[in-house]
Fold this protein.
Amino acid sequence: MENLIDLFELFKIFVISVVQGVSEWLPISSTGHMIILDKMMKVNLDASFMNMFFVLVQLGSILAVVVLYFNKLNPFSPKKTSQERKDSWFLWFKVAVASIPMGVIGLILGDIVDNYLFNWKIVAVSLVVYGFAFILIENRKQDPRARVITQLEDITFKDAFMIGCYQVLAIIPGTSRSGATILGGLLTGATRFIATEFTFFMGIPAMVGASLFQLKKFGLDFTVGEFIYLATGMIVAFIVSILAIRYLIDYLKNHDFKVFGYYRIVLGIVVIFFFTFFH
């Protein structure tokens, strides 16, 4: 085993996967955390493999959503009524509609983002800007006449598409996919709980699509060691994601998103400080 893998590199993979599993679902930007980790504890593995790893490890995270919400997402369950199965199908259709903007814009601008926007300055600014956005939106005065979405079934296809448009903002590194879609959900009228749940479901096609794209680029020619690193990362991300999702849902019962806004601002300042004085 030790000839196949480096235990110190495996430890780094473990740490990265823990951070990914947490930051993928909390609106705090997995990219912001990864860019610091990458500089603090550089993984000494093939660069093309690591580029693929950073994407495919998300499959472990998305599997956590499928497991936790399997009953709600499953339109074939014999335990469901006809209306409940219909609601599950419509939920999938709405997720599909919400995924259209990101799918289109991602294909058009993906290379431009990788080549010109993926740097610490953009990440730091995005962390701070969207940190303030969360605080401002949570502090806004609600119009008592405004429509409030309290159930997933109340999300219309128009609502889904609008939330999907907000998800496009996440193409800018440091924004956070979950952060952008949660903000979109809140601005569309959804409660914190519903905006968060719909964000979880929107992550399924987004992450599966990105993973398949990376896997196609890298191919299936893994070494045994690379397979162990990848499998370890996905398993760790899966376990940590289950804990993170449960924590967030429980947290939102009595709290708002402002603490994540403050955290993002602090992290953005840390990124600026780190790269200004230590890079």
Summary: The mean pLDDT is 90. The chain has eleven helices and no strands.
